[in-house]
Design brief:
- The chain is an alpha/beta fold.
- It has ten helices and ten strands.
- It has a five-stranded mixed beta sheet, with helices on both faces. It has a five-stranded mixed beta sheet with strand order 7-6-8-5-9.
- The chain is globular, with a radius of gyration of 22 Å.
Length: 308
């Protein structure tokens, strides 16, 4: 009898993904992060052949969505769709997790913040807004996405530089910021331009100042804060992450699928239409930048009295 005649055949390793993948969007439906997550899901199906569903998990400045990831197996079947408010939330203790609880796989979008009002607002410039707030401390209802995040941080910087006081009305989805402004529930917002993309494009929302170093090619008519004498500059990223401990071969498969998405003409068109820059930071660069952001923001928040 030939040796090995009764040996069992070798089973081929299963290829990722073996089952449908869930994109856990840590904000509510209708905002800029949700729009990105849903386009990503659509293109992962079209370009990589995956079956994908989107699960919105708003709340806790991102903590609810992150919790959904870290309490599931580290097998890549749940992918977190998140933003740069991650580090603000961790630094303030609003997110009870660490950067090390995640593998930060890819940053795919970035865009600035802006000070926005409706077109019928009496404010035409940042100076108009600042002058009113100096004369009427807390005299306007100002809001934006999340509590203690990137946009509130930008407003705080403007307050300190210009010497006025303002409250902050947080919203758990950026789409709700636009609705609040259109409904006159808030008078002004610090927000990404894509938060009210249709209204920015049709002129219903006016951007008084944008936090880019120079005027954005997407927004050539919107002045920067810098050209108006205020040293405000910065952008917020959007990207994906998985639970720490996810195997390297699974991560490689996800990265390969993302490469197919970002190489597609549909993705490039989407980025242009949404006024998005494309940082395309892979894991090492992404992680390094996030750790740097966390250190700088923790120092700022402590100096500003946001945390002890």
């Amino acid at each position: 009898m030939a040796a090995g005649a009764f040996a069992l055949p070798q089973l081929a390793a299963a290829e990722y993904p073996e089952k449908p993948v869930t994109l856990v969007v840590w904000s509510g439906a209708g905002g800029a992060l949700d729009t990105y997550g849903r386009k990503l899901a659509e293109l992962l199906e079209k370009e990589a052949g995956w079956t994908v569903k989107v699960d919105n998990r708003p709340g806790g400045s991102g903590a609810v969505g992150l919790s959904q990831i870290v309490t599931q197996p580290a097998d890549g079947s749940n992918i977190l769709v998140l933003t740069g408010t991650l580090t603000f939330g961790i630094a303030q203790g609003l997110i009870p997790f660490k950067v090390e609880d995640l593998r930060l796989l890819r940053a795919m979008q970035s865009e600035p913040s802006s000070l926005a009002v409706l077109n019928d607002s009496p404010f035409k410039t940042v100076d108009d807004f600042v002058t009113h707030m100096k004369e009427n401390p807390n005299g306007l209802k100002v809001g934006g996405h999340s509590s203690g995040g990137f946009h509130q941080y930008m407003l705080y910087q403007l307050m300190k530089q210009a010497g006025f006081e303002s409250g902050w009305i947080p919203h758990d989805a950026s789409g709700k910021v636009t609705l609040a402004m259109l409904g006159n529930h808030i008078d002004a917002a610090m927000m990404t331009p894509s938060t009210g993309l249709a209204q920015v494009k049709n002129g219903e929302i006016r951007l008084l100042g944008v936090t880019t170093a120079e005027r954005s090619p997407f927004l050539p008519d919107a002045p920067t804060f810098k050209e108006q004498g205020y040293d405000l500059e910065g952008s917020i990223w959007r990207g994906i992450a998985v639970k720490a401990g996810t195997p390297d071969d699974v991560v490689a498969a996800i990265q390969s699928a993302i490469d197919k998405v970002t190489a597609s003409e549909e993705w490039k068109t989407f980025q242009q239409e949404q006024f998005q820059d494309s940082p395309d930071w892979a894991e090492a660069e992404f992680t390094e930048r996030v750790q740097k952001d966390l250190a700088e923001q923790a120092e700022f928040l402590k100096a500003a009295g946001f945390v002890q």
